[in-house]
Amino acid sequence: MNLKTLTTQVAHLSKAIGHFIKNEVDSISEKDIRFKGLHDLVTYVDKESEKRIIDELSKILPEAGFIAEEEQQLERAERFNWIVDPLDGTTNFVHGIPLYSVSIALSDKDEIISGVIYEANRDECFTAWKNGGSYLNGKKIQVSSIETLNNSLLATGFPYYDYSLMSPYLGLFEDLMKTTQGIRRLGSAAVDLAYVACGRFEAFYEYGLHPWDVAAGTLIVDEAGGKVSDFKGGNDFVFGRQIVASNLLVHDEFLSKLNSFFGEYL
After folding, report:
1. CA proximity to 69, closest of 95, 51, 91, 94
2. What CA–CA distance (Å, rounded) separates 239 from 7?
3. DSSP conformation class of 108
């Protein structure tokens, strides 16, 4: 398997889907919006995008299974699986906020070996494959060289259904407001991770995420020279529903701060 070629094919597919999504933004009305769960929106655009993605990925690597947001009953394979979020940032999309993305990763058992994130509004395609580096529109990228949280810009996501860790989350949030250059909440975890990879953010953290939200981005950050972990500093960040991604240089400092608030909850 040529991972560079495969990733390029997935990038072309992601762009096509991204253009479809962007073209539909003015067609969405309230009657098109459904709720999968508390504050968890879905539209025909999510579903149609995922159908098109699955059809095309099945041609690129027929033996692979799927872990997908909208069609969770799809069969998983023993070795290769596509991990697909057809529209990460649906709430932004339905409100006309121009930041959402397509996120597609390929796993080999438990290891992510290819990742693509396409943000259609800025026409930015982030790609990575195992041991191949990370790229933005074909140009190699790397994480920032900021060494301290005091000089860092961070990203996070607000809990929207799982409020079990709100107390430590808000405590950490307040602390970081005072001890960093700022915190942003963009509404797409995939984009947050891509922005860490290209140096726009020094770190990103969130809990309650799904594998399709983060799988592609974790590889893109790693191949750009960054570090990804769960809240404990371990490797259960794709399926473990907790993630910290950073430029590596501030990772230990961030985990130490996080542990001071979340320690007894982990």
Report:
1. 51
2. 22
3. E
> In the block, which residue shows the tokens 């930041």?
99
Beta bridge partners of 81: 65, 107
Residue type for position 35 = F
Q: Which residues pair with 35 in a beta bridge?
A: 41
Q: 30-65, pLDDT tens digit by residue?
A: 555 555 444 445 677 888 899 999 999 999 999 999
> SS3 for 161?
coil
| Domains, in order of start, for the chain | 3-140 (3.30.540.10), 149-265 (3.40.190.80)
Banded model confidence at residue 208, pLDDT cuts 50, 70, 90: very high
> Alpha helix locations (H) across 104-250?
166-179, 189-197, 211-223
| Beta-sheet pairing, 153-156 with 203-207 | parallel
Which residues neighbour 171 within 8 Å (Cβ) at sequence distance 6 or greater? 261
Strand spans (E) along the chain: 34-37, 40-42, 65-68, 80-88, 101-108, 111-119, 124-129, 134-136, 139-140, 153-156, 182-184, 203-207, 227-229, 242-246
pTM for the structure as a whole: 0.94
**Residue that wins the pLDDT comparison between 266 and 106:** 106
